[in-house]
Amino acid sequence: MNFVEVAVQNVRGFSPAGRFSLKTGYLVLKPPTAELSPLAGLSLALLYADGRGGDAALAASTQKAAKAALTLVGQDSVTYRVLRELGGGGSLHRLNPATKQPELVTQDTAEANQFLRGQVGLPPRTTFEQLFCLQAVQLPSRRPRGAGRPASTSGLRAHSSTGMPAMRSPTSPGMAHSAPGMSISSPGVLPASDIPAAEAKVRELEKELVLCREVDNLQFEVDGLNSQVFDLESKLRSTDGLKEKVREAEAAWNAEPTPESFGLPQDIVARAERYPRTLARRDEALARLQSEREVAEEEAQRLPDVEPLVRNRNFWIAVAAGVGFFVAGFFFSDWGRYVALLDIPAFGFAAVLAIRYVDELQDKDRLSRRGEMFVAREKKILEEFEAEAGPVRKALEVFDVDTPKEIPLRLQRREQLGAEVAQLRAQLVTMEKHPEFQEAAHQLPVLRKQIELLNAQISEKGAFVRDLREVERELARLKESIALARNPQMAGMGMGMAAADVAGGGMEPLEDPGPLVLGLAGDLLATDVAAVIGMMRERCVQYFSALTERRYVGVEWDRDGRTMVVTSSGRRMPVGELPPREVDLFFLSLRLTVVEKVSARVKLPLLVEDALVGLDESRLPLLGRMLKHLGTLTQVLHVSPHPGLAQLSDGPVNL
């Protein structure tokens, strides 16, 4: 998950109106004035609205409405936009991936909160605030000494520096059940003025506490199922990269030119391969034709010129002799008439000459027709060659190559892409047929149905249910006020003990941040504290040792998360007994370690808001580099006017 854009209007600490784009990495957000921009508070107000209107305090001016919007990409890779009028209502929108247009999800605050936790992947408010919002007020040195509080939803409690269980704060539920006379009044708790009304309020709070516990248990189940859904969706999304490769390969394969797209025949590759043989066959046929033509021309040259029959003297003599013998036969009588028969050989000789003339004409005509036949055969040879080789020559022009051998290489790219597409499709089918993938696809709708049923049960409990710890604190304070009203000496005893403590110079150790932070990290990762400790120890030592200039070389936790640090001299001591600034440095080291390790499984933006103010100036560059390293793992948004940190960032944003 990461924030994409923040838009504000009349919000304290920001420009009067503006839209601020946020990219991934380590970003330093520069406030417009000396007042730091309440980015963490604004984000909590938008993402975890309680419907009470308390977020109106973020308005810069009460004269006009304050509005804010936050655009984020959820764990489901969908873009959402939360819009809210601070102190009023709001709406949740989702960007449709197909139409690229926003769609309204809900305008109901409770439904929006449930949707953001269930579908978008937001953790509970306490987890997000204590792990991913880093503020100066959270530093142990800036919190009241001994003001312990419930460590996490897993039930961890803070312990004293002696290793024995520390006394709970009067604001905790355990203090409300202390024996009379043993309780010490908390600062600001006054005796109840109306004990019956206070007892009635206690009964109401106890009923509300039962309801809150039921809702908290249901929400815990929903969070566990959401964690499983996220894991299953991660398994199903494991094929997204391969699907994207398949789409890219198919697009490249479809974009690659085909023979048909250039008007070439389908078998252009085979034609290009046959082209040398086709060319050789044409040359051979033309050579054979040329040889036959030369032979015919030699025969034609050997033939004498045909003399026209009308110019043949022998023909006319034979004809004249035949006519003469025929005519002479009319002038003789008896046997002399037989002279007329001599016209037969005369006319026969003339006929022979005529037939010979016709034969010569036929031979001449035959030779002339052979020339036409040679022309027709040559035309046919060239046409057949053109039908076979014409597309090849066109391909040479289209592909801008010099020889037909380069044509298959030019078209081979498409064949390779086709083979690659087939291989990727086979890999995708194999992954989707894997038993784990199919089991995830089968379980996902079942878990989502269970989440819907649990969310329906939560909705039946009420549109808005307060946080369990808030009800416990209010109930404890109310019971204490009743106890003080019934036994006024308890207040005096508490003041006397406090005065004696101050007079004796005794100071309680600072609160150990380990149980709270490690417990919340375990809840978020759905594992126990022991597993979280094994995951965090080495990296936390590296951060803490670097920030303290190697004065501390080790960090140890017991099974409840209580922290012992090891000095460079080998001394072991509870972290709460360290100087306040060094407790703060341990707190920062632990928080940075948790964000780094958790980001490997759940990516949430880290909001750093004035948490580094008051620390040694010499440590700021080192802390800046640490935050920049975290920016490579998840989005880090750091509100700071410090110019040196802006230079270290991936890009400053002017608010």
Automatic annotation (TrEMBL):
It comes from the Bacteria. The chain crosses the membrane at residues 315-332, 338-358. The keyword GTP-binding does not apply. Residues 279-306 form a coiled coil. Keywords: Coiled coil, Membrane, Transmembrane, Transmembrane helix. Residues 142-179 are annotated as: Disordered. InterPro entries: P-loop_NTPase (IPR027417). Residues 153-163 have a biased composition (Polar residues). This is Chromosome segregation protein SMC. It comes from Archangium violaceum Cb vi76.
